[in-house]
Design a protein that fits this description.
There is one protein chain. Strands 1-2-3 form a 3-stranded parallel sheet. It has helices at residues 2-6, 28-36, 40-46, 63-68, 80-85, 97-107; strands at residues 54-57, 71-74, 88-89. α5 links the parallel β2 and β3. The protein is mainly alpha-helical and 111 residues long.
């Protein structure tokens, strides 16, 4: 992330829209970030305020990440404990809930 931000102007990247994202077997790096978001050094290193973090999850392994995030989102098929702590519940994985979150809450949000 730091490397991308360092070269953002050169590569025409909006440095405010760089994230770590992972799914299933390819999500190990993102999962590691998810487990450590509640530790301030990650957010401080990335220059991200807690209230700027959006975390989406469905399993108990996502508990800390969703608890920490300024906007914690549970998938519609999430574990009941995840739904209980989430500030927002989206559609299920099969119903493209993550796409809904990105579109409705991030891309079209009012500043």
């Amino acid at each position: 992330i730091g490397y991308l931000r360092e070269h953002a102007d050169e590569w025409n990247i909006d440095s405010e829209k760089i994230v770590t994202c992972g799914f299933s077997a390819g999500g190990h790096l993102a999962a590691s970030y998810g487990n450590f978001w509640s530790r301030s050094f990650i957010a401080e290193t990335l220059g991200v305020l807690q209230e700027e973090v959006v975390a989406v999850g469905d399993g108990l392994n996502d508990y800390e990440m969703i608890s920490y995030a300024g906007l914690g989102v549970a998938m519609g098929n999430a574990h009941p404990k995840i739904k209980k702590i989430a500030k927002y519940i989206t559609a299920t994985n099969d119903e493209d809930g993550i796409a809904d979150v990105i579109y409705e809450l991030i891309l079209t949000s009012k500043e």
